[in-house]
Design a protein that fits this description.
The structure is a single chain. It contains 11 helices and 35 strands. It has 643 residues and is an alpha+beta fold. Strands 28-29-31-30-32-33-34-35 form an 8-stranded mixed beta sheet, sandwiched between helices. A 4-stranded antiparallel beta sheet has the order 1-2-3-4, with no helix packed on it. A 4-stranded antiparallel beta sheet has the order 5-6-7-8, with no helix packed on it. β28 and β29 form a beta hairpin.
């Protein structure tokens, strides 16, 4: 969705019912304690990518506790480490050509990503965008161009991005179009020509189209941000028809074909009754759409291409159908694939699949030291909010313990315009391993459930959105699963805000709370948004509240920092000093307000982190401190009650 620019956290299906299935559970012995280090340490190998010609693979692996890129020939054991970052691990990267890889890296979590390139033998590493305070973004990797790609840079004006054609060998670049100040996105065709521009005035979005790069842009359609016409890619003749995800005239987003010249939808390819359709994939070699992804309680696919469906069936049969599996990388000829497979109890496994021989080979396990039998099941659930909405979520019960009167951690997600999904979550597994039940809920505003459900969150921070979380907590108590004297709440970013709102709105409900990079004051958070969010300020006002209107009364009422006198729960706050999304002042002012009120709060500040802790040693510190904090305030609470 267009609103996902505002996601506050880098975070992160069978049908469910109001009934908890506790009667079906077989209680066995509790598993051994799994250390924080085993759950949160870097994988031995991860993020595999295959080179365009299919003869080399790259992956990330630790070097001095930081994830760096390594390369090896696909039929060789010889490995070359091609990057040497010691301050911060490398996250996103890909093959830009048969010889050269590119990656993005920021400084200390400030999200001003630089674009780097390096040869597959580790030579000729270069910072292609060596500009202080500038953020690089990928627009088109130009798959058929081995020396250039199109990137966006806010080098000229911090609030907007201009598209540049950049040489990945030399760093030489030229601006392709000067952003007049209101363009927030660009779409290229299959030849790498910029043909669409997305324009916003803050609340309305206009799609501009041009038949060729020599033609001027002309308006196609203008919609309010509540309506989505999200281009995916041009049809394969590079004409005036695009594949798009659209909720125009409907509640659930559909995958459609849209004629830009006629300004109308010409075909509905797929729509689901209950959830939004997601993205659509295609074969670059065969020039056909292949599948549509959507999420119910698990990830689902609608296949559009028989060859692609047979491909998935073949390696799915070999890997195991209980796993979610998908293609993460493929060569240009589309006959060698890298496959990821995983579930709720394993971080996952990578495989190679040779389409010619139909052979699947094991490549690497992400966490081979974890025993799947010691980890807990993540079960889909649903309950009804006080005003009649169906709220979907996931319940993870500690293994080997009766699902009765358990200590519980309520875990609202970040965003807030995001959603929780089924799969391996190390935070959830850590808490379940320590004996806590964990409830995650997709409260109103969570994405994927249609336009109406999403819009029902607007200007409802700390109100109906929070009620959905409270109702889930009370539902779990009514089920007999949660011990009402031992309920904690923990979340990051918006989930951190929901944590603080929970202990100020319903102080009697929670014994302990952990706020991880969360908003405490809606006013100061809005004032400190990153410059590249500035074009969306009016939209933020529509979705959260406008401080220049009567909304300010509501915003103050729902900013936890003004209500610290209501807090009864023990509170632990964690923050990154370089966070550009929820700045350090959000946590500082909360801590200061609590101190003025005579309340002691545990505060962890990491000087080398941003919006969430990325460096391994900081993850260890945080999760060890969090589990100790919860144990002291939850399990010790049980002893006090019994005494």
């Amino acid at each position: 969705k267009k609103t996902q620019f505002i996601l506050l956290l880098f975070v992160k299906q069978g049908e469910a019912s109001n009934k908890s299935k506790q009667d079906d559970l077989v209680v066995s012995d509790p598993p051994p304690e799994i250390s924080v280090e085993d759950l949160f340490k870097n994988s031995e190998k991860s993020s595999f990518r295959i080179s365009p010609e299919g003869t080399y693979i790259a992956y990330r692996a630790p070097y001095k506790n930081r994830m760096n890129i390594h390369v090896q020939k696909i039929d060789s054991d010889s490995v070359v480490r091609v990057t040497h970052s010691e301050d911060r691990g490398i996250n996103g990267y890909f093959w830009a050509s048969n010889n050269r890889l590119v990656y993005l890296k920021d400084k200390g979590g400030n999200e001003n990503f630089h674009l780097y390139a390096v040869d597959k033998n580790g030579e000729n590493e270069k910072d292609l965008t060596p500009f202080e305070g500038v953020r690089a973004q990928i627009i088109d990797d130009l798959e058929n161009n081995s020396t250039e790609m199109i990137i966006g840079l806010n080098k000229r004006i911090p609030q907007i991005f201009d598209p540049y054609l950049i040489n990945i060998e030399t760093g030489k670049m030229k601006m392709l179009y000067e952003n007049p100040g209101n363009i927030t996105g660009w779409v290229t065709d299959h030849n790498g020509s910029i043909r669409l521009a997305m324009v916003t005035n803050g609340v309305d979005q206009t799609i501009l189209y041009r038949p060729t790069e020599k033609d001027p842009f002309k308006e196609v359609i203008t919609t309010n941000f509540r309506e989505t016409l999200n281009p995916q890619f041009f049809d394969f003749d590079n004409g005036h028809v695009i594949y798009a995800v659209s909720n125009l005239g409907r509640d659930k987003a559909a995958v459609v074909k849209y004629d830009l010249m006629k300004n109308k939808e010409v075909e509905v390819i797929f729509v689901h009754d209950e959830v939004d359709a997601g993205g659509i994939s295609y074969s670059n070699k065969r020039k056909v759409p292949t599948a549509i992804i959507y999420n119910t309680t698990k990830m689902q696919r609608k296949f559009l291409d028989p060859e692609y469906e047979e491909l998935y069936k073949t390696f799915g049969d070999k890997i195991g159908k209980d796993n979610e599996h998908y293609i993460v990388s493929l060569n240009k000829e589309e006959d060698v694939f890298l496959i990821y497979a995983g579930n709720d109890k394993t971080r996952g496994t990578y495989y190679t699949y040779d389409h010619k021989t139909k052979e699947v080979k094991h490549l690497a396990d992400l966490s081979p030291w974890l025993n799947e039998e010691h980890l807990a099941d993540m079960k889909p659930i649903q309950y009804t909010s006080r005003d009649g909405l169906t709220i979907h979520g996931y319940l993870t019960l500690p293994k080997g313990r009766e699902a009765k009167n358990l200590p519980v951690v309520i875990n609202p997600h970040g965003g807030p315009w995001a959603r929780d999904t089924w799969g391996f979550n190390p935070e959830v597994q850590l808490l379940a391993n320590r004996g806590y039940a964990v409830l995650q809920m997709n409260f109103r505003g969570s994405t994927g459930y249609g336009k109406e459900f999403w819009e029902s969150s607007f200007k409802k921070w700390g109100q109906e959105m929070q009620n959905d979380i409270t109702d889930g907590t009370k539902w779990l108590i009514d089920q007999g699963i949660a011990d009402p004297e031992r309920v904690a709440i923990y979340g990051g970013s918006y989930g951190g805000y929901a944590t603080l709102a929970g202990i100020t709105n319903t102080p009697e409900l929670y014994t302990a709370a952990v706020d991880y990079v969360g908003v405490s004051n809606i006013f100061t958070w809005m004032n400190a948004i990153p410059p590249y969010w500035e074009p969306y300020r009016e939209m933020i006002y529509d979705m959260v509240g406008d401080p220049n209107t009567i909304d300010s009364v509501m915003m103050k009422a729902n900013s936890p920092v003004y209500h610290v006198d209501k807090i009864k729960a023990a509170l632990f706050i964690a923050q990154g000093a370089n966070d550009p999304r929820v700045v350090q002042a959000e946590s500082d002012q909360m801590v200061e307000a609590l101190k003025k009120n005579g309340v002691t709060v545990q505060y962890m500040l990491k000087e080398d982190e941003g919006h969430g802790f990325y460096n391994e040693e900081n993850r260890f510190d945080f999760y060890n401190a969090m589990t100790k904090f919860l144990d002291e305030n939850m399990k010790e609470k049980q002893k006090e009650i019994k005494t």
